[in-house]
## 1
Amino acid sequence: MSGVLKAACVQVNAGTELEANLASAGDLVRRARDAGADFITLPENVGWMVQGRAKIMARVRGEAEHPGVAFFAGLARETGAWILSGTLHVLLDGERVANRSYLFDPQGRAVAHYDKIHMFDVDLKGGESYRESATFRPGERAVVAGTPWGGVGLTICYDVRFPYLHRALAKAGASILTAPAAFTVPTGRAHWHTLLRARAIETGCFVVAAAQTGTHDEGRQTYGHSLIVAPWGEVLADAGEEVGFVVAELDMARVEEARRMVPALTHDRDFEVVRTGF
């Protein structure tokens, strides 16, 4: 890992229509590039935010014919930036869907993709309930992609609650972790900043987390606050709750500095778990 780059989080309020959502996201990507960003990330569900399996299945397409894949490939070529597409819904077998993140290089090549591993199956207060596993097939591969600035470890939203994934990515060469998200408002207020700062501190990585914001289909609300976090845990940029983008400078020397001071990635120990008194 070497050098300094400017990373951007694009924060959107996606509706139900793919074409309109891509156009809005594309305008923000171009503005972020004009602001000097070399690496531009977008949120989970950037193509659409719809509630329920039926609405997703009515819209989803396979990878080869997916308009979002072609759009972000072309946008990377147009801007000359590295672009993380956020996530697009990709049909796998007629019944199940991947929640998939793509990393495009400045030539528009998809150099890596990652399917969300951990499914958001939860029941929150007030009747807010989600069952991603009813529609999506969990991924089975952790992915680190090579870039001019070092390895980029790909994660998605709910994955942020699973430290072992991020530790494995760091050990496999990641110096930047991405976490495109559509966090709910209740969990965002309670946990978003803490979780992302913890993942940065534990791994000595930069964390770049673009997020959805505002009110979506059927009244679903997302938290916003796209964040860029340094390896020592400082928040370098916070997008608040408005649609837009934030940019921060990532000095990759800070990764080795943090890991040298606290080399936790080298301190793993085997241990036995003992249950007593039950």
## 2
Amino acid sequence: MSEVNQEQQVKNLKRFLEGWRMAVLPLKSVFLWEQQWHPCAIVASVSVLYFIIWLMDLNTLATFAIVGLFLNFLDFIVPIMCNSLCSPSLWTGQNEKIFEDICRGIVANYNKTLRQLCNFYSLRENSPVMYYIVSISMLCILAWMASSINNIFLLYIFSVVVLLWPGIQHRGILNTLLSMIHMAPKSLKAE
């Protein structure tokens, strides 16, 4: 991905999130767990949302419709609230820099994910046996999980992991766990 194209993507994302910019700054601190209670707030918010969905006991299509309505409502109300509660004069150059860094990070992660998907699908040309082994195995595991575990619960777990992932990466928790796992066999061999 060229640098010019990435800069254009950042500009487009900044324009797209223009109404949300006052809300994006506090959300960044929540998603990166700048306070100890932020992960609990994320899990609690997602839990309440899924508890309401579970209580409503809607079919799948109605659930998607309700979630879509909720997201549309948020997309409508957040820019209005941001503009009415915070005047544009409060937006500083430092806030703009933080907002641009957030947009740059989103674009970088999006492009990284896209590259990884392209690399996976390039296995089909380069190593078809490996491609089919990995894809069929993953699809079988997914089918088994979907038939064994409640789908709403699976979506709940997926949502929690996706929303906690930026904080996990920022804090280096995954790297710490992987290094502990990597060190565990060595300490067993030493005894």
